[in-house]
Amino acid sequence: MLKINWFSPLPPQASGIAQNFCRQVLPALTVRHETILWTDQDSVSPQVERLARVAHFDPANPPWRALNEADICIYHLGNHGGFHGGIWRISRQHAGIVVLHDLCLHDFFNVVFLRGLKKPDEYLAALERWYGAEGRRAGEAFQTGGISAENMGRRFPLTREAAHGALGIVTHSPHTLAELNEKLVCPVAGLDHPFAPAAESVYRAWLAARNRTPGPPYRLVVFGYLSTNRRLESLLEALSRMPERGQFHLHICGELWDETHIRAEIERLKLEPLVSLHGFLPDAQVEEQLSAAHLAINLRFPSMGEASGSQLQFFNYGLPTLVTRTGWYRTLPEDTVRFVRPDHEIDDIQTQLRALLADPAAFRGMGECGRQLVKNYAPETYVEALIHFASTCLDQTAHVAALRLAGKIGCDLFQWLHPAGSEHLLEQASSGIATMFEHTPSCAASSKTSL
Amino acid sequence: MKVLIATSGAPFIRGGAEILAESLCDAVNAAGHEAEIVTLPFESWPPSRIPEQMLACRLLDVTESCGQTIDRVIALKFPAYLIPHPYKVIWMLHQHRTAYELWDHPVAGDLIQHPDGPMVREAIRQADRTLLPEAKAIYTLSRNVSGRLGRFTGIEAEPLYNPPAHAALYHPGPAGDYLFFPSRITPVKRQWLVIRALGLCREPVEVYFAGEADNPAQQAECTRAERELNLTGRVTWLGLVSEEQKREHYAHSLGVVFPPLDEDYGYVTLEAMLSSKPVITCADSGGPLEFVVHNETGLIADPSSESLATAMDALWADRRHAATMGEVGRQRYQDLKISWNNVVEKLLC
Amino acid sequence: MSKPRGFKVLIATTRVPFIDGGAELHAEGLQRALREAGNRAEILFIPFKWYPPERILDQMLACRLLGGREADCLIGLKFPAYLMPHPRKVVWLLHQHRQAYELWQHPMGDMHAYTNGAAVRQAIQYADRELLPQARRLFANSRNVAARLRTYCGLEAEPLYHPPPDARNLHSGAAEDFLYFPSRINPLKRQHLAMEALAQTRTNVRVCFSGPGVEPGYDQTCLALARKLKLQNRVEWLGSVSFETKRDLYARSLGVLYPPLDEDYGYVTLEAMLAAKPVITCEDSGGPLEFVLDRQTGLISAPTPEALAAAMDELWENRTAAREWGAAGRDRYSSLHIGWDHVLEKLLP
Q: What's C167-335's CATH class?
C-alpha cells in the first residue's frame, strides 16, 4: 500500500481527464491506497470529496512538508494550460510519476510560459534545451506570429520538457510516444487507458433500444470538448456535399470551442434540418444519445498523442466509430473502427457514410467487435499497473538525484574543462555518480563488517 | 603507521565530533603512530548540495602523500566516510540523521521541508548502502547508532565506546541538594520535560541546568515554563560553565538527570558515572540506556513528566540509595574498560 | 585604520598530509590576523595529491563541488582550493600549480614525465584562465607570482605582501661565524648550490642549514655532496627546528644565505630583514629580489657556485658592511608597510 499525492483536474472541471478518467480510476485507487487529491481548483465536486481527502495547493508556494509525507506524487498532465499548469509547476520541482495524457504539449507550454507565468525566456530556454538553436529561433518566430501553433506543435512537441526530472512516465499511447522520437531518460510505462465497462445486461438493453430505431435516418454522434482538431468543419462540409445527406442526422453533444462559428457554418451549408446542437449533456442524456446512435464520429487531427477515453465509451456502447488514422487511433484493431485519412478527410468521410448506408449490418458487427474489446477492462487493472510502476520507479529515486547532479556538473565543467582533460574527468565523474546512486540489485542486505 | 582521520564539519560550528576527532588524533599519536585530521567542509542546505559534496569526497585521493603511503583512514562522519581508501575503517558517529530517523522529526527534520528532500534522502541511503561496505571495518559510537545503521542500512557494526574528555579529572564528592543537567539547551535534550516533571514533584527537588541555548528562543521557552509552574527557586540556570566548574557541579550533585530524546551516545552519562553519581534517564533516551542499569546505577523513567517526577522524587527521598547507585555506576564504568587505548587498538588492528 | 569587523571568513587552501609546508603558516597567519581583528575565520585544508596528473583534474572538480557558501567571504590561497565557488571570493594567490607553468619541462618539475602531463597542463591553464576571473578581486603573494600570472594567463593580480609567521619575535644580535640557510630541504631551494659554492670559497665560510626534508632523496643527495666536497666541518644540518631556535639562529648569524630558484615570495628574506641581517641571494631567485637591494641590504649574485662563493667570501670578510646592510634591511622592511592590517584592508569586503 502506498501513500499517494494525486494531482489532476477533478470534477466539476470541464476536462476529459476530470470527467472520464478520474471517474473511472479514483474509486478503484482510493479504496486500495491512502490518497490525497491535491488541487488548485476553486471547488471540487462532493462526490470526489467522498472518495478521498481533498487538499488545496498554491502553485506559487507548494506545501512541501505535507507533500513529503506521502510516498509518491502522481501528476496528470495534458495539453490544457489552464487545467494542468499548476500541476506541472509542482511536478518540475518535485520528482514524481507523470502521466502524460497528451504527448504533444507545445500548446500547453505556450499557455503556461507565455500567458500564465509570463516568462517568454523560459519558453525559449525550453525549446533550446531540447531542440537547440533551431528550436529557439522557431520559438522567437512563433512569438511574433511568423510560425503557426500547429507547425510548432508538430515539430517541437516538448514532451521531454514535461517529463524532465520525472521518476517515471505513464502514457496511454506508447506507440505514439515511440514515434515522436522524444527520447525519455526515465522509465516509461505504456498502460491501457482505464475503463469500467457497463454490465452485459445494460449493454443488451442499449442494443435493444438501438434496434428499436434502426434508421435511416442514421444517428451520427460527436461527443466531448470540441476544439478545432475534432474536424467538425470537415464533417459538415462532407455531409453537405452528399446527395444522400437526408439519410443522416448529426447530433453534436459537447462544448464547442466556437459555437457561433459552427452555427454559421451549419447555416452556410444549409444543414439546419440535419444537425442538432445539444451542448454539454448530463449523464442520463449522454446514455440516451449513445444508446440511440448508429455511428460515432471521433475524428482528431492533429493528434496530441492522447488516448481517447470517449472512444472506449463508444466501444462500451457497441458503437461503430469513424476515427482519423493517426496517433493512438492508428493502433485500434481494424475490425472495430473505420479509418479516415487526414489528407483525404472529406472523401473518406463520405465513403464511410455511404458504406453505412450500403451495409448497416457490417457496421453493427463492427460495434460488437468494439464491445468485445473493452468488456474485460477494469479500472482496478489500471490502478494495479500504475501503482506497480510507481513502486518500481520509487526504487530508482536516487537515479533522479544522479541525473540532477550530472546535469549540474556538466554545466560547471562546461565553464572550465578543456577538451584535453574531458575524457578522464567525465569518466571519473560519471562513474563516481553511478557507483554512489545507481541501484544495483545485489546490494548487500547485511554484511558483517567489524572484526 | 600514517593514519588520516577524516571527518566532515559545517564551518564555524565546533561540537562533540570535533573534540572527538582531536582526542582520537592525540590517542593515535600517543600510541606511536602519525595521525592527522582532515576536516572537509560540509553544508547540508539546500539539499541538492549534499550529493555534490558526496561526489567531492569520492574524487579525493588519500592513498598516499608525497610518495609516502597513508596506511589507514579512520572516517567518522557522513560524507567524509565516502572517501575511497584501500584500508578505511569507519568509526561512525552517526549517519546523516535527517535522511534516517530524523526524517519527519517536527523540529529537526529539514529534508522533509524541501521539494528535493525525498530524492536526496534516497540518494544518501543508496550511497550508504553501496559504499559503507567498502570499509574494512565499521564501528560506531554506540549501540544506538549501530541499531539505526542495522535497521536502515542492514549493516552490522560493533559499538566502540570512548571516554569523555578529561575523564581522569572527574571525581566524586559529598552529595548536595540538587540534580545536575549539563547540556546544550535544545528541544531534543528535553530540559522542558524536566521542568514539567519538577512541577509534579512531591519532594522539593532542585535542578541545576548548565549550558547554552542553540538559539535564545529556546531558553526563553524554558524560563517561561519555569514561571508558569511556579518553580522559581527550584531551578538554576548556570549558563556556559568551564570544564572545571562542570566537574565540580557533578561532584556535589545528588545525581544527574539526563533524559534526552534518542541521544547518539551521551558523554553526560559517563561523566556522571565517573563522578560516582546516579543517573535518571528515560526509556527513549537512546545512548544513556547503554550505561544506566535501572535501580542499580540510576533510574529509567517513562518519557512522561509524571514518571520522571516519580524518579526524581525517589532519588531525592532516599539519599543512601542514591549514593550506592552512584558507586555502582562508577564501578560499572571501570568494568566497561572504556579507554582510548582500546579504541586505537580496535581501529588500527 | 581597520575594516569593519565580525565577518565569517573561510580560507581555502590545500594540505599535503603529513608534510610540513610553508603554506599552512600563511593560512594560519591570516586566520590569526582575522580573528584578532574580530572576525571569525576558519581554514579549509583540502587534501591534495598531484600525481599522477589526472588526479589533479579530479581534485579540481572536487573543489568546485565543495564550498563554504555560509561564509561572508572566501579567500582562496592555493590551487585547486581557490577554484571553490563563492559569491564573494577573493583570491590571494600564493602560486599557481607551478609544474604546469614555469616548471613545465624544467628539471625540477615532474608533470612532463607523465604520459598525459601535457593534456592535464592544458586543462589546468584553461581552468585558471576561466575561473580565476570569477573572484571579486585577485591578489598575489608577490610581484613575482603576479608576473607569472600575467605571462601565462594574461590576468592581473595585485601584489600583497604579508609578514612572516614569527615576525613579532624576530630580533637581532651580535654576528657569529656562520651564514644561516633556513628552508625546507628541496631542490628548488637549492641547498646543493649553496654547498657547491661553499666548496669554492676562499675563506672559511660556515653554513648552518635548518629545515625539514620534504623531497625524498634530496637530503641524501645533499649529505652525499657534503661528504664528497669534504665540507663536513663547515656545514651543520639541523633538520626541523623550533621557532625559538630559528629566531636565535637568525639573531646570531652573520648573514642569511637564501638562493632559491624562482621563489614565489620567501619568508626567509623578510625574516632576515626583521633580524637585521644581510641576505645573499641570486639573480634568478624570484621573490627575494623584491626585497634585497644589491650592496645595500645584501648581495645578489649570479646563480653559479663561483659567483655565490664570491658573495659569501665578501660578506665573510667585511663584517662592517654585513652589519650596515643588515640594518638597512631592517629599515627597508619598515618602509614597505608589510602588516596584517593592510592585508585585511585589501581582502575583506
A: alpha beta
